[in-house]
Amino acid sequence: MSVDxxxxxRRSATVERRTRETEVVVRLALNGRGECAADTGIGFLDxxxxxxxxxxxxxxxxxxxxDLQTGAxxxxxxxxxxxxxxxxxxxxxxxxxxxxxxxxxxxDESLALVALDLSGRPHLVYDVNLTxxxxxxxxxxxxxxxFQAVVNNARLTLHVRMLAGGNPHHMIxxxxxxxxxxxxxxxxxxxxxxxxxxxxxxx
Length: 203
Description:
Layout: E1 2-4, E2 12-18, E3 22-29, E4 36-39, H1 43-56, E5 59-66, H2 73-91, E6 100-107, E7 110-117, E8 123-127, E9 134-135, E10 138-139, H3 142-154, E11 157-164, H4 168-187
Parallel strand pairs: 4-5, 8-11
Antiparallel strand pairs: 1-2, 2-3, 3-5, 6-7, 7-11, 9-10
Helix pairs in contact: 1-4, 2-3
C-alpha cells in the first residue's frame, strides 16, 4: 500500500487486495485528468469505471482477476472495496475540502440524483427501481453492491435516487457519471475552509 495524501499535488493512493476469490489492484489520483485504465474481466464495469474517472476528473487504474465462472459478484464487490479504501486514503484528514457534493444527471430518458457527504460515516440510500437483468455480463443488481462497498470503505454518506428511467444501461450509467461529478465537487479544495469542514474538527 502507498499513500500520497492531502498535502500533495495528486492526493493519490494504491490499494491491493488478494483473497481466494479475487486479486485486485486500484491506483487512484484525485487531482487527475480523467484518465482511466480498467481491466476487471467485466466489460460493462470497465466502462462504468471509465465514466466515473472522466466525470470525476480523477485518474484511475483498476486491475482485477476474479472467479468470474461463479458470476461477477465477488469481483464487483472487491473492486468497490479497493476503490473506497483508496478514496479514504487519498482524502487524508479532509482538511480544506468542500465535503459535500451533488449532481442531477440526465442520460436520455433516465435522470439520476446523486448526493454525497465525505462524512466519515458510511451510509447508503439507494432508491433505484431497476429490473434485474444482465448488461454486458453485469447483473444490474450488482450496482448497489458496488456502491455499498465503496461507501463502507470510503466512509461516506451517499444518496442515489432515480427520478426517471427505463433503459437499465442508461440508468446505471447516469448513476456512475453522477457519482463522479458529485465526488469531484466534494473532494475539491475550498479556499474559504482553513481546516477540516466540520464543527467537530474531525471527519
